[in-house]
Amino acid sequence: MHLGNRMFVVGANASGKSNFLDTFRFMRDIVKPGGGLQQAVIDRGGLKKIRCLNARDPSHVGLEFEFTDGSPESVFTYILEMTQEPRGNRGTLVKREYAAINGVVLCDRPEKDDEQDPQRLTQTYLEQISANKKFRPIADTFKETVYLHLVPQLLKYSDTLYAAAPKSDDPFGRTFLDNIAKTSEGVRNKRLKKIEAAIACAVPQFHSLKLDPDVTGKPHLTATYKHWRPTGAHQSEDQFSDGTLRLIGLFWSLLDGQSLLLLEEPELSLHSAVIRELPGIIARLAKKRQVIISTHSPDMLSDQGIGGEEVIALSPKDDGTEVSAGVDIAGVREMLENGFSAAEAILPHTSPKNTSTLSQLSFDV
């Protein structure tokens, strides 16, 4: 399936939206410093928890990607298939690793050396600098991938909720302020000014946004809210609403970099009027990067600028989840051409079948 610059992933609960995004996170975890295939699998509970819920034994997990920067002379293909050791530590082995550019094979494993030393198959070539030189653009693409699912409570109360230091690439907000502080002052202030203007449109009385360190040097977001006092009222991030924090995180991530950005349900905690504006904001702020968004929100998909080819619909079946481009679902193209939104044309095809019986259920307390 071709993925454009802006894609929306829709489907019922537990249909695989988070897993779809995690495919790219998994590849990033393989190639990031301190990562690797074994650690990426361990972090997800082993290969048995990565494979399809409906998989049969024996089974393996396979991923296939194709990359291009828009020019026909640079089309990279990468395939990774994994299986489990039949005995011993039951670790993960590379069943196949293939890389090519414009059909010219750069890597095709297992190789002769792998057969003579099976331990080599515990690592991908992709994660090894000495082995991935010819197809390093693939590794670099995955390495720069950004995933955001900012949890406001983790940002507000990280010191009290957790004793252990967070990972430097924590996607849930614990290192968000540190990452802002590490950005050069000029770039940081320019971005915060843009975010301040956007937030002021969505949050009543919001006036200014700054990053200030406390007496220990720890960075904090501070804002001024206008009211009857001439100087207004000042708040730090632990007093911000959940929606305000999620908007700040969303806008910062869109302005920060040009790599693949994965957004999981960015509509959470936001007013429907704000949600309806997000697709256009994403398109404007992320002109030079690819963004994949998972969502349940009809408000998000009510934007008439969203084409059917920008929506990926997930439908669970007995033997796995069926993945379809929204425009390829029967009747959708005609509905979109007749003025229906993606929410009206596509979301009904991903709704659970038995929701109408929910109101008939009785719960004994």
Strand order in the sheet with the most strands = 6-10-11-1-12-13
Shape: globular
CATH architecture of the largest domain: 3-Layer(aba) Sandwich
Q: Tell me the name of the CATH homologous superfamily of the largest domain.
A: P-loop containing nucleotide triphosphate hydrolases
Assembly context of the chains: single chain
Helix content: 25-40%
Derived structural class = alpha/beta
Secondary structure topology:
Elements: E1 6-11, H1 17-31, H2 37-42, H3 47-50, E2 61-68, E3 75-84, E4 92-101, E5 104-109, H4 112-116, H5 136-143, E6 146-148, H6 152-161, H7 176-182, H8 185-202, E7 206-213, E8 219-225, E9 233-236, H9 242-255, E10 261-264, H10 272-275, H11 278-285, E11 291-294, E12 311-317, E13 320-325, H12 332-337, H13 342-345
Parallel strand pairs: 1-11, 1-12, 6-10, 10-11
Antiparallel strand pairs: 2-3, 3-4, 4-5, 7-8, 8-9, 12-13
Helix pairs in contact: 1-5, 8-9
Walk me through the structure.
- The model has no long low-confidence stretch (mean pLDDT 89).
- This protein has a 6-stranded mixed β-sheet, with helices on both faces. Strands 2-3-4-5 form a 4-stranded antiparallel β-sheet. A 3-stranded antiparallel β-sheet has the order 7-8-9.
- The longest helix is centred in the middle third of the chain and has 18 residues.
- It has 2 domains: 104 residues, no CATH class; 207 residues, Rossmann fold (3-Layer(aba) Sandwich), CATH 3.40.50.300.
- The chain has 365 residues and is of the alpha/beta class.
- The chain is built from 13 helices and 13 strands.
